[in-house]
Specification:
Largest sheet: none
CATH superfamily: Amino acid/polyamine transporter I
CATH architecture: Up-down Bundle
Radius of gyration: 20 Å
CATH class: Mainly Alpha
Oligomer: single chain
Order of helices and strands: HHHHHHHHHHHHHHH
CATH topology: Amino acid/polyamine transporter I
Distance between the termini: 54 Å
Structural class: mainly alpha
């Protein structure tokens, strides 16, 4: 792999992670506090990197164009395992794409002060633009993604500079560990790059150097998340009319609350552009991954090669769900992180690693991560069914 290819793939991986992490994490992480959330970020970043490497190894061993996650899980968990995980994976894809369509529609309406009656038209326009890019060739995707990442970097640095003037350092020292489990699903969702690995492994001709762009992309995303966490928690208070709680309840990105505090029209414009571009880069990479995922099912399970049916199954459900439930942004990401991601990209790859382990240390590491991801899943289930309630409430 050339340095140029490694760089472009690293940006694609970063773009895949930035949308969910940047827009959603500060809202829920703020209740636990900066230091607990920082610890969770480093730990969960390492955990997701571990399981990602497991999947890369499995995919690279096969070296097949249509070998994607359905076939991979089918090898290790049988036919029933293949279909259960495929359905769960589709839920993740739809949840993420739905959240991005809904979130970008909200931000566009705010940015251009568009009347609510035009919301369906805005949603449809964004859907057409996003999906057109997502179904393009990998060469075109890399080109456009690099362009969007440049805009994202400029907007991000501008936001950091503008927001840093209003940071209250005392807010960074507030710690409440009991709220950390609320943030964990969002943080996990913000460090998922696993969707795109079958596509990128194929694009790299199953090169062993694919680990390089993964590490670079993950490092960039982690650094940006930490900076944004500092600004988000430092600028926006937990409670009040304009607060993290207000964003949590209404389901808007933290940039909306920050713009109110700063009272800057420039910040509002830059924040909206940043948020929309962040969502765009994620939508492109995940949409590409969904297309390749379905191609595996269509080709290897049903012997179908209908491109238009493939696109319809991939992208129409998120469009309809976004239209029916416009406020689903944070709810969708929480569901994705808490259930789908933890199972498919946490527990199952760790089990595969355990099955493959041939040393005591590798078995110990895989067991550790199995327990970690299982604990996340149990905690999320307990919260979802109201057995425990640690959600933020007005103070």
């Amino acid at each position: 792999m050339s340095k140029k290819t490694i760089f472009f793939m690293a940006l694609l991986i970063t773009g895949n992670m930035i949308g969910a992490g940047i827009l959603a994490v500060p809202i829920v992480a703020g209740f636990a506090g900066f230091y607990p959330s920082l610890f969770a970020m480093f730990f969960l970043c390492a955990a997701m990197l571990y399981t990602g490497f497991v999947l890369i190894r499995e995919i690279n061993e096969e070296k097949q164009d249509t070998f994607n996650l359905p076939s991979l899980y089918g090898q290790h968990f049988g036919v029933s395992g293949k279909w259960i995980t495929s359905i769960a994976n589709m839920t993740i894809f739809y949840g993420v794409l739905t959240s991005y369509l809904a979130g970008s529609t909200q931000l566009t309406m705010i940015l251009f002060n568009i009347e609510s009656s035009f919301e369906p038209l805005v949603l449809l326009t964004i859907f057409v633009l996003f999906t057109s890019l997502a179904v393009s060739s990998i060469t075109i995707i890399e080109r456009y993604n690099s362009f969007f990442m440049l805009i994202l970097a400029v907007a991000f640095l501008s936001l950091i500079g503008l927001g840093a003037t209003e940071i209250e350092t005392s807010r960074l020292s507030n710690v409440d560990w009991k709220f950390l489990p609320v943030a964990v699903p969002m943080i996990v969702a913000g460090f998922v790059f696993h969707y795109v690995m079958p596509s990128l492994c194929k694009a790299s001709k199953w090169s062993k150097e694919i680990y390089k762009p993964v590490l670079i992309g993950m490092a960039i995303a982690l650094f940006m998340n930490i900076l944004w966490l500092i600004v988000g928690i430092g600028v926006v208070p937990k409670f009040g009319e304009v607060s993290l709680l207000d964003a949590y309840v209404t389901g808007v990105p933290v940039t909306v609350e920050m713009s109110k505090i700063l009272g800057s029209e420039i910040f509002l414009v830059v924040a909206s552009i940043f948020a929309i571009v962040a969502i765009t880069t994620s939508f492109i990479s995940i949409g590409m991954a969904l297309k390749d995922f379905l191609e595996d099912i269509f080709t290897n399970s049903f012997n179908l090669q209908n491109r238009y049916l493939l696109f319809a199954v991939a992208f129409l459900p998120p469009l309809f769900i976004s239209y029916l439930y416009a406020d689903i942004f944070l709810k969708a990401l929480g569901f994705v992180g808490g259930f789908g991601v933890v199972i498919l990209f946490g527990i199952l790859p760790s089990i595969i690693a355990y099955k493959r382990a041939n040393t005591k240390i590798s078995k110990l590491i895989s067991r550790f991560f199995i327990l970690v991801f299982c604990a996340m899943l149990v905690l999320t289930l307990l919260q979802t069914f109201g057995i425990i309630d640690i959600a933020p409430a007005k103070g």
